[in-house]
Specification:
The complex is a heterodimer of chains A (234) and B (237). Chain A has 234 residues and is an all-alpha fold. Chain A contains 8 helices and no strands. The radius of gyration of chain A is 22 Å and the shape is globular. Classes of the chains: A mainly alpha (234), B mainly alpha (237). At the A-B interface, helix 2, helix 3, helix 6 and helix 8 of A face helix 4, helix 5, helix 8, helix 9 and helix 10 of B.
Chain lengths: 234, 237
Amino acid sequence: MQRYADVFAAVAPFLLQGFLETLWLSLLGVVWGSLLGTVLGVVRGQQFRGFSAAIGAYLHLLRGTPFLVQLYIAYFVLPNTGVSWLKWNSQTAAIVSLGIYTSSYVTEIVSSAIRAIPRGQWEASFAVGLTTIQTLRLVILPQSVALVLPSLGGVYVNLIKATSIVSVVGIAELTRQAEIAILRFPASVLYIYGLVALLYFLFCFPVLMVVDELERRSRAKGAGNGNAEAGASR
Amino acid sequence: MLDQILAGIVSIYNYRIVAQYVDEFMRGGANTIMAAAASLALSIALGFLVALTRLYGSRILTAAMWNYTQIIRSTPLLIQIYIVYFGLPLLIPPAGKWPEIVLGIIALTIHTTPYMAEIIRSGIVSVPRGQREGAIALGLSPAQQYRLVILPQAFAKTLPPLLGQAAILVKDTSLLSLITVFDILSAGMLLNSERIKPNEGFLSVAIIYLLIYLVLLVLSRAAQRRLAGGVAGGRAA
């Protein structure tokens, strides 16, 4: 028991520091991943033919390859192109690849939320003389937010979990700090990974519970509408 | 003209170097597919048991399965892999002599089972109550109800999300390279470290993963189309 307490006292500050780095990475990733994803999602929601195909290809590229491979491409392949502004350090490569990874999910969520807004909303907006941009800003996007929020919570949890992978390019986030701590206390491998898992759990679990509750509510609402419609058609 | 284009391609992606590593990529690909297929089969089997437990199990068992699901969902796969890789040999000493890929398959199975259970559970729940009641009225035993009535219908609803989960599983196997399993990604890293050619190494890896993904995507689309046709036919009837 004493041994556990000693190891805990020795590694806790570093794990906490790593946890803060994990939160910081995930915050940066979610901010710029959401920005990129929202822009792509809005464009995709408009159904311009050329753009939609290009964005579809982008999504398939991201969804068809593991995040670890995307990270290695950002870290090893892009600096090798010889373009000076692509010569990233590990920090930049990690944040860029986390953001791009996030954008693939956000794009899908935003574009389907925009498509879920009834056509009549667009037609009414045009009828009162709004431009396309104004319609998006004043009518469509405010209504989409409620549809998007629960799914975005899930994306955020995915992102936090993905940050553990950037430990392999040497970012000192939670998982990397655990590996360093294990070098100091090789006999406590399981204990240290257990502590790390607990930290991830304490952060992700409440978010997932909120997401589940929001999804249950929106599904209950949707099911209610569906039944009403089915009843009407009969 | 053609020579120039070829020279241009070779300067970015020298396929001749990749050709020298075909054996390594084949070996890595075989390991990736083996790890994915084994964990897929195991997690479907265990996921089915977990789904049944969540539907019909006692309260304690149901709560245990819920806890298991939430723990897996709330922690990164990489940590789960490390815990199995370092922890299992402490728990069962002979596991220390098992090949890394076996430990990797165990970790991936533990990770994927709750997701499979959720897919299978919602497939079973989606079969209308009347089907089960009809089966009972015909005097089928519970096993027969499942085998002849519920599972065939649940399977149709389950197949597309199941293929999606299989695609995620294939991508997840890439993390096994970090516990020294020689998979596709390890083959690419070997090329990169021996020749210092990141383009050839990692782009080849990405292309192979994309090909596997496209195969699964086509299968999933085909399944969806056939099953959607079935549903529409049912409605028309």
